[in-house]
Specification:
The chain has no helices and 8 strands. It is mostly beta strands. The strands form 4 sheets. It has a two-stranded parallel ribbon. The protein has a two-stranded antiparallel ribbon with strand order 2-3.
Amino acid sequence: MDRSQLQQQSITAETSEFGFTLREVSKNTVDWSGGKRGWYLDLVPPSGAAGERVVSNALLKHDRIIFVTMIPSTIPVRREAPAG
């Protein structure tokens, strides 16, 4: 399967509530009879943050798919040599 067989969805809005960033996504209909086999969502928000990844299993609740993502820090990790 490739992306041509999937309906594209996109992030349409970002809000901040209760200390969390929440997003709204498009509701493009999947044309099952036209050969589409599902949908995909590229994690490219309006803010333009790069490198975002899903870090948990998705949860279906109240007709919504919920998943946790993270954006890796751009600050390099500094490791100290062990004392001794």
